[in-house]
Write a structure and sequence with these properties.
Layout (H helix, E strand, L loop, with lengths): L9 H11 L4 E9 L9 E5 L2 E5 L4 H17 L3 E6 L15 E7 L6 H12 L4 E8 L5 E8 L12 H10 L3 E5 L2 E8 L4 E5 L3 H12 L3 E6 L15 E4 L2 H7 L6 E5 L4 H11 L6 E4 L3 H14 L4 H5 L14 H18 L9
Parallel strand pairs: 10-11, 10-13, 11-12, 13-14
Antiparallel strand pairs: 1-2, 1-5, 2-3, 4-5, 6-7, 6-9, 8-9
Length: 353
C-alpha cells in the first residue's frame, strides 16, 4: 500500500523553479541567536516580486530578505546580511524579539538543482542524509551545494569533514562550521516518524492534530468513509478507508513507525492489534480500560496470537498517567508518550492494577 504525505518540500520547489527557468534566489538562515522567529536552515525561494515558497521568519526579516533577493537576482551574485531584532519599544517599527540572524541569499541556486533534487528524492524515499551548503569569501561569496546520503558520507569529505556530518545527523540539528574564510552549513534531512492512527473518531482526530504539530507524519485508517474525510485531519495527513486489519497488513512498517489504536470497539482494537503486533514498530499503543486490556492480554496469549513478551511491548492502556478525562487531554497524554519513546526510546506506562 502506497501512502504518501503531500506536504510541501522546499527543496522540490527549488527544483521546479529551476526547471521552469524562473529567476529566483534562495534565502537560507545561517545563524540564529536569541529569540529569532526561525532556526538555522530555514529557507525561502524568493523571486524579484516576493516569496514563492518557504519562510525565513516572516515580518521584517522576510521583507529584508525579499529586498536583498531582488538585489542579488539583478546582480547574479550571492550575498549575506545580518538582521537584528532589538527594537527599543513596542511602538517602534523595529522588531523587538531580541534575536540576531545572519542569512545567505543565493541567486545561483538553479546551478545546484541536482543537489536539491537529491534532497527532495531522499525525503520522498524516507532516506537520511545531509544537505551541505559551502560558502567561500564574503562579498561576493561563492556558493556550492551538495547532498550526502547518510550511508555514503565520503571519508575524505571537505569542510566540515565526515565525522562532523555524522555528528549533525546523529544530533538531528543543523550546524554551521567555519575555517579560514570558508563556511559550511550542514542540514540533516531526517524522515519524519510515521504515526498510524487506527480509528478516525474524536480521539483519533485529536491525536492527529497534536501529533502533526510535534513532527509526526500522520496516516489515519478507518473502515468508515465518514471518519477518513481529509477535512477532519491536519493538512497533509494521509487517510485510508477499508478493513483496518488488511490495511495494516499492507502498510510498510519500519523502525520509525508508531501505531495508535483507538477504534470504536474492543473487537476492532483486537483485529488491529493482531495485524501489527509482530511487525517492526517503534511503538504500539491501544486505548482501553485496565480490565479490557487484561482480558485482551489473556485472550491473545491463550490463543497463541502473542507471547507474554510480545504483548508486553504494547502501551496499553495507552498514554501517560496524567488523570486525563477529556478527549483533548487523552490525546495530549498519548502524544506525550509518543514523544518520550521517540526521544528516549521508552516511556512511562499506565499501571494495569
Amino acid at each position: 500500500m502506497n501512502v504518501s504525505h503531500p506536504a510541501g518540500d522546499i527543496h522540490q520547489a527549488i527544483v521546479e523553479l529551476a526547471d521552469r527557468g524562473q529567476r529566483f534566489a534562495v534565502a537560507v538562515v545561517l545563524e540564529a541567536e536569541g529569540s529569532s522567529p526561525v532556526g538555522v536552515g530555514a529557507k525561502a525561494a524568493i523571486a524579484a516580486g516576493g516569496v514563492l515558497r518557504g519562510t525565513v521568519g516572516g515580518g521584517a526579516v522576510e521583507a529584508e530578505a525579499q529586498r536583498r533577493a531582488a538585489e542579488a537576482i539583478a546582480t547574479g551574485r550571492p550575498l549575506m546580511f545580518r538582521f537584528t531584532l532589538f527594537g527599543r519599544a513596542v511602538g517602534d517599527a523595529s522588531p523587538i524579539c531580541g534575536g540576531r540572524m545572519r542569512l545567505l541569499v543565493d541567486p545561483t541556486a538553479a546551478r545546484h538543482r541536482d543537489a536539491y533534487a537529491a534532497a527532495a528524492a531522499a525525503r520522498r524515499c524516507r532516506q537520511r542524509g545531509a544537505l551541505v551548503t559551502h560558502l567561500r569569501g564574503a562579498e561576493p561569496c561563492e556558493v556550492a551545494v551538495e547532498f550526502l546520503r547518510a550511508d555514503a558520507v565520503p571519508p575524505e569529505q571537505d569542510l566540515p569533514g565526515a565525522e562532523a556530518v555524522r555528528t549533525v545527523l546523529e544530533a538531528e540539528q543543523p550546524a554551521l562550521f567555519a575555517e579560514e574564510g570558508r563556511e559550511a552549513l550542514v542540514e540533516p534531512l531526517i524522515p519524519r516518524p510515521v504515526l498510524v492512527i487506527v480509528g478516525g473518531g474524536h480521539v483519533g482526530q485529536a491525536v492527529a492534530a497534536q501529533a502533526d504539530l510535534v513532527g509526526f507524519e500522520v496516516v489515519v485508517m478507518d473502515d468508515r468513509p465518514e471518519f477518513t474525510r481529509p477535512e477532519l485531519f491536519p493538512a497533509g495527513a494521509a487517510t485510508c478507508c477499508g478493513p483496518v486489519a488488511e490495511r495494516l497488513a499492507d502498510f510498510p512498517f519500519a523502525g520509525d513507525t508508531y501505531v495508535v489504536i483507538v477504534t470504536r470497539g474492543h473487537q476492532h482494537d483486537a483485529e488491529a492489534l493482531a495485524a501489527c503486533l509482530r511487525r517492526p514498530a517503534a511503538y504500539v499503543g491501544m486505548i482501553g480500560s485496565r480490565r479490557k486490556v487484561a482480558l485482551m492480554r489473556d485472550d491473545f496469549i491463550q490463543s497463541g496470537r502473542a507471547t507474554p513478551e510480545e504483548f508486553a511491548r504494547v502501551y496499553a492502556p495507552i498514554g501517560l498517567d496524567i488523570g486525563a478525562a477529556t478527549v483533548p487531554e487523552i490525546a495530549a497524554s498519548i502524544v506525550a508518550q509518543l514523544i518520550a519513546v521517540r526521544r528516549t526510546g521508552r516511556a512511562p506506562r499506565m499501571p494495569l492494577h
